[in-house]
Design brief:
Elements lengths: L1 H54 L3 H8 L11 H5 L7 H8 L4 E4 L4 E7 L2 E7 L5 E5 L4
Antiparallel strand pairs: 1-2, 2-3, 3-4
Amino acid sequence: MFKFIRNNFGPFFAGVFFTVFVLLIIAVVYLYSVNASLRQEVADFQRKLSDVEIKVVPPEERVQDSINVTDVQPVFNFDNWNKLRVNIGSDEVKRLLGKPSQIIAWIDSSAYIYRYSNGEGQIYFNRLKRVRGWRRPEF
């Protein structure tokens, strides 16, 4: 009985398995292609979103940051360091503390370094030039 099935239906089952195997390979290649295109679309969307995040600033912040600060003399005052708040603009920081001794720029952020005789203070900004943190100098 088994010999009869093997001799008569063996080639049929081999053909069915081969066809299923080929269809499986085609499905995997197609799904990989779709996945790659979706990944590219997500990457493009994230890039566009980050560009929009940089451009979108609330109107009240836009007005305050658009005022140019020129030649502000440094003010070495502990009270001015206490006036720092998260999310204030870089122009406001310059109004409070004066021109920084050094500006360090990274890809998505920057820092102002204020050097005093007692040490140095650092202020960290996000990509929108808003304060995200600081380290006071030792007075």
